[in-house]
């Protein structure tokens, strides 16, 4: 499936370079050109059909109904116990290719291209093929897909929030504005804050540590900026971090009997949501500053 996707990209004008070990005959037929290397030298470069002719010319005819990729690997391998013979065979194949018409044409073309087009010097050493918006859109879409691929995690978070909200609501059920009730409401509000704080910190503490190797590789390849990655990642997870405070407040607020009125409820919801998202940001901070999940 991966090779078929890359094949379609190449047919649209993209250049795709793929390293692969011992592909099946079905995969082998998908390649436009193949490059075979042995002992640090080029043994062949050209189309699969040209490879058959070349190896036949050097005395290594691929048997009928045999996977060409497996055959080329065997021909160009250093066989234990027969190292000298194997290296002599490899040297003969590489020497024959070096003086072939394909190799000479390739060297001539390369020399011409180097003379015609000087090396491009990137501005300040940094270049991006895609615009800031294109980078942001791609990273946001990928991050959103990663959220959608873990529906069980989202369900667990919502169920956990619901159960904790019901538990707190039952413990502080129907408080009255007496001296004891005011102290109980004070404790309930404290639990509102601590639950939103720790739940969201620990939900994001491993986000960046788990993806750090991927991010470092892609950022060094100039695929996207650091800010587009961070914004895309955080915005993709934002809906969940807005839903959790809403579910928690909608259950616990009326059960405890906090101040009646729609505006008072939304004031409470706004504060709980802000606390949750500040905690989320703090979790991101720890995640970015830590080298591993265990350290975080």
TrEMBL record:
Keywords: Membrane, Transmembrane, Transmembrane helix, Transport. One of its GO terms (molecular function) is ABC-type transporter activity. InterPro entries: ABC2_TM, ABCG_dom, ABCG_transporters, P-loop_NTPase. It is found in: Membrane. The chain crosses the membrane at residues 152-173, 185-209, 230-256, 262-286. Pfam families: ABC2_membrane (PF01061), ABC2_membrane_7 (PF19055). Residues 135-295 form the ABC-2 type transporter transmembrane domain. Residues 21-79 form the ABC transporter family G domain. Its main location: membrane. GO terms for cellular component: cytoplasmic vesicle membrane; plasma membrane. It is a multi-pass membrane protein. PANTHER family: ABC TRANSPORTER G FAMILY MEMBER 28 (PTHR48041), PROTEIN WHITE (PTHR48041:SF129). This is White. It comes from Drosophila mauritiana (Fruit fly). The gene is w.
């Amino acid at each position: 499936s991966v090779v078929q996707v890359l094949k379609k990209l190449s047919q649209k004008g993209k250049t795709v370079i793929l390293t692969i070990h011992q592909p099946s005959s079905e995969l082998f037929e998908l390649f436009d050109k193949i490059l075979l290397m042995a002992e640090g030298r080029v043994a062949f470069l050209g189309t699969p059909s040209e490879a058959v002719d070349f190896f036949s010319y050097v005395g290594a005819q691929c048997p009928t109904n045999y996977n060409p990729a497996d055959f080329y690997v065997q021909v160009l391998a250093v066989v234990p116990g027969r190292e000298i013979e194997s290296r002599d065979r490899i040297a003969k194949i590489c020497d024959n290719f070096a003086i072939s018409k394909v190799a000479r044409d390739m060297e001539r073309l390369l020399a011409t291209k180097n003379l015609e087009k000087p090396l491009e010097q990137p501005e300040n050493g940094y270049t991006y093929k895609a615009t800031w918006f294109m980078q942001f859109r791609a990273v946001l879409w990928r991050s959103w897909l990663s959220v959608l691929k873990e529906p069980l995690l989202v369900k667990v978070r919502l169920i956990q929030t619901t159960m904790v909200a019901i538990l707190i609501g039952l413990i502080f059920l129907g408080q009255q504005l007496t001296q004891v009730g005011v102290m109980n409401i004070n404790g309930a509000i404290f639990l509102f804050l601590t639950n939103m704080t720790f739940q969201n910190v620990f939900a994001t503490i491993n986000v960046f540590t788990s993806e750090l190797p991927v991010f470092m590789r892609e950022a060094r390849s100039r695929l996207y900026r650091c800010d587009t990655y961070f914004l895309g990642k955080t915005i993709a997870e934002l809906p969940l971090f807005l839903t959790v405070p809403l579910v928690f407040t909608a259950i616990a607020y009326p059960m405890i009997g906090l101040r009646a009125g729609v505006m008072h409820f939304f004031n409470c919801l706004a504060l709980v949501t802000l606390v949750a998202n500040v905690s989320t940001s703090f979790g991101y901070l720890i995640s970015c500053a830590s080298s591993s999940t265990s350290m975080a």
